[in-house]
C-alpha cells in the first residue's frame, strides 16, 4: 500500500475508533461529501437553521458530522474577525468556593443573562488570592474583554495589575474604586457609602444612641464604604448618637458572634447593630435572641444586601438592597458596547442602593 | 509617502488612539522590538513567569505590550494543538435567572473549581427552554467539551439532541437518565431514588401513617426519582402507611403553599410531608406553623438537598444531602480526562445521597 498524502487524509477511518484523534480538522466539504449533500446544506443543518430539510437529510448530515468529527471552525473565524464572542469573568476570593457568596452569584447571574442575550458567552474563572501573582490562567482566557470582581483590595498587588494590563483587553471592574483613568477600564459600583449613611440615619431616627457597626477585617473597599457612610452621618448630622466599629476575623456566623460576645463581655452598652452584610446581621440576631435580648426593643439590627436568601430567615430584617443582578446586567451592556464600538462610552457608573425597613428596627 | 507593506505595518501608531483597531495582530517580536528586549523576555513577562526581571524591564515590556495592543496568540495556538483549554456548561432552565437555584450554583461551583485546578476555563451559558431548538449560542462555544444540566426532561427534544450531536464534542450530562450508549457521553447523577426511599423509611419509622409528597409539576427526572424511591419503600416494605403525591405548579413558596392549602381543605388527614426540595419544605413548614400545626408532633416535615442556605431557616430541617458540589468536581475530573486521553473511562456514575435528621421529624 502506498503511503498516503497526509494533507488529504480521510478523517473517517480514524474517527470510527473513539480513541483515535483525527490528524487534521475536517471541513464542511468533507462532511458534505460524506453525506452526499451540498456544503450549504451541511452549513444550514450545523448552524441550527434546521427548517426546510426532512428528517432523513438532517440525520444523514448529523451522522456525517459525527463520522468526520467535524467542528464548526470558530477558532479560525475568530482569528479572521478578531472577535471571540466571549467575555471573561474573574472572581478573586480568599475562600475556595467562590460561588458560595450570594452577592457574587447574583452579579454573575445578571452578567451571564446580559451577555447571552447579546450573543456572547461568559467564561468564568475563580482565582484564589494566593495565585494572583502568577495568574497564568487569566492569560488562557479566549475572550474579547474581562470583568473582574474582587472581595478584597487586590488592586494593590503590582504583579496582578501587570498581568491584567498584559491581557490587552477592555476591563469592566466591579465594586472597586475608580481605576487609572488612562486604562481601557469601566468601573461599575453600587453606592455602598450612601447605603451605610442611610441605614445609620434610620437607626438614629428610631432612637439609637450607640450603634455598633460590625464588619470583617478584610480590606475590601465596598465594606469600608458602608462603614464610612455610617460614620459620615454621625459626624455631619447634629446627632449625639455614637458609632463603634467592631471587626470580626471573617464574615462567618461564628466569627461574627465571637466578636460580638467579646464586645458584650466588655460591658459596653449599645442599642443598635449595623452589620456589613445580611449573613452577619442574622448571626448577630441569633446571638442576641439566645441571650434574651428583645429585637428591636432592646437592640435594633440591620444588615446589608437584601438578597433573596434572607427570605429563609423567619424575621424580616432591616437591610439595604444591593443591585447585584443589575450591576451584572449593566456590566454586560457596557462590555459588549465597548467590544463593538472600540471604546467605553462611560468610565464609571454608580448604582443606587435602597433602605428596606423590616421588623428588626 | 510610499504605500506601506501591510505585512510589516507597525501597529503602534494606530494603537495610540483608543478608538483605532489595529489591522494586524501584533506578534511577540513586535513587542520585543518596541521594548528593546528579546522575544523570550516578552514571553516570560507575558506568561506570568515574572521572577528574575527587574521592575524596569517588566514595566518596559508591559508598556510595549499595551502600545502594540499585543494579545498572546491563543486562538492560533489552539488551531495547532486542537485544544481550547475550556469546557462549556449549558444550563437549560424554565426561568430567566438560572443561577438563582442554589443546587445549580453549588454544582457549577464544584465544576469551575475542578476545571480551574486543571488549567481549564469554564464557559457558562444559560439557555431558556424555548430557545432549545435554535440553540445557535451553543455552537459558538469555543470549548473542548460540553457539560449539560437541565431542569426538565428536555432530552426528549429532537432538534436539541441534534444540535448537541452536531457539536461533535464530548458531553458530561448531569442528573439525566443514562443516555445513548453509542454517544461520546458520560452521565453523572446523584442517587435521588435512594434518597427518596430513605427519607420515606425514616418518616414511617418515626410513626408516619400518611405521607404527602409534594413536587413541582415539571417533568424532571431527578424529582421523579425522589418520589419513585418513596413509593418503592411504601410498596415493597410491609408498612400499612400510605403515600399521596401532590403537585404544585412550580417550586415557589406560594405555589407550594397553594397546593397544600387545597389538600388541607379537602379534609385529608396526614402526618408527614416529604417535599421535593428544601425551598418547598420550608414553605410547607411555614404554612403549617401559621395554622398552629405542631411540627413534628402533629406533622413531620422533610425536604431534599441540604444545601447551605437552609442554615438561615431557624429550624433544623430533616432533609437528604445532595452532593451537588461533588458532582460538579467529578464532572470536571472526567471531562478533562476525556479531553486528554480521547475517551471517557466510565459512562455513568451515581453518587450517594445521605439522610440528615433534623428537628422536624
UniProtKB/TrEMBL annotation, chains A, B:
Organism: Chelatococcus asaccharovorans
Domain HTH lacI-type, chain residue ranges per copy: 26-81
Sorted UniProt keywords: DNA-binding, Transcription, Transcription regulation
Keyword Transcription part of the UniProt annotation: yes
PANTHER family with a match to the protein in the record: HTH-TYPE TRANSCRIPTIONAL REGULATOR GALS (PTHR30146:SF109), LACI-RELATED TRANSCRIPTIONAL REPRESSOR (PTHR30146)
Protein name per its UniProtKB record: LacI family transcriptional regulator
Residues covered by region (Disordered): 1-24
Compositionally skewed regions (Polar residues) per UniProt: 1-12
Entry GO MF terms: DNA-binding transcription factor activity; transcription cis-regulatory region binding
Amino acid at each position: 500500500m502506498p503511503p498516503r498524502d497526509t494533507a488529504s487524509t480521510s478523517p473517517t477511518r480514524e474517527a470510527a475508533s473513539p480513541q483515535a484523534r483525527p490528524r487534521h480538522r475536517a471541513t464542511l466539504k468533507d462532511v458534505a461529501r460524506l453525506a452526499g449533500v451540498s456544503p450549504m446544506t451541511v452549513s444550514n443543518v450545523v448552524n441550527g437553521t434546521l427548517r426546510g430539510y426532512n428528517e432523513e437529510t438532517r440525520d444523514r448530515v448529523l451522522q456525517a458530522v459525527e463520522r468526520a468529527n467535524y467542528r464548526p471552525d470558530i477558532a479560525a473565524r475568530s482569528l479572521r474577525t478578531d472577535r471571540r464572542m466571549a467575555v471573561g469573568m474573574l472572581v478573586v476570593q480568599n475562600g475556595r468556593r467562590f460561588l458560595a457568596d450570594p452577592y457574587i452569584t447574583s452579579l454573575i447571574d445578571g452578567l451571564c443573562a446580559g451577555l447571552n442575550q447579546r450573543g456572547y458567552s461568559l467564561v468564568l474563572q475563580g482565582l484564589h488570592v494566593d495565585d494572583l501573582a502568577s495568574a497564568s490562567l487569566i492569560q488562557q482566557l479566549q475572550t474579547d474583554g474581562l470583568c473582574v470582581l474582587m472581595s478584597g483590595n487586590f488592586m494593590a498587588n503590582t504583579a496582578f495589575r501587570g498581568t491584567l494590563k498584559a491581557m490587552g483587553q477592555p476591563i469592566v471592574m466591579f465594586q472597586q474604586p475608580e481605576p487609572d483613568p488612562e486604562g481601557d477600564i469601566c468601573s461599575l459600583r453600587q453606592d455602598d457609602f450612601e447605603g451605610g449613611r442611610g441605614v445609620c440615619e434610620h437607626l438614629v431616627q428610631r432612637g439609637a444612641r450607640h450603634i455598633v457597626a460590625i464588619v470583617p477585617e478584610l480590606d475590601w473597599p465596598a465594606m469600608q464604604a458602608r462603614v464610612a457612610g455610617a460614620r459620615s452621618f454621625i459626624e455631619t448630622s447634629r446627632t449625639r448618637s455614637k458609632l463603634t466599629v467592631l471587626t470580626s476575623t471573617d464574615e462567618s456566623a461564628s466569627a461574627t458572634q465571637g466578636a460580638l460576645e467579646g464586645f458584650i463581655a466588655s460591658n459596653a452598652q449599645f442599642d443598635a447593630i449595623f452589620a456589613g452584610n445580611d449573613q452577619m446581621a442574622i448571626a448577630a440576631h441569633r446571638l442576641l435572641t439566645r441571650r434574651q435580648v428583645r429585637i428591636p426593643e432592646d437592640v435594633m439590627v440591620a444588615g446589608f444586601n437584601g438578597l433573596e436568601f434572607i427570605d429563609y430567615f423567619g424575621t424580616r430584617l432591616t437591610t439595604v438592597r444591593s443591585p447585584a443582578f443589575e450591576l451584572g446586567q449593566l456590566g454586560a451592556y457596557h462590555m459588549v458596547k465597548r467590544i463593538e464600538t472600540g471604546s467605553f462610552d462611560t468610565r464609571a457608573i454608580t448604582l443606587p442602593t435602597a433602605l428596606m425597613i423590616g421588623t428588626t428596627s
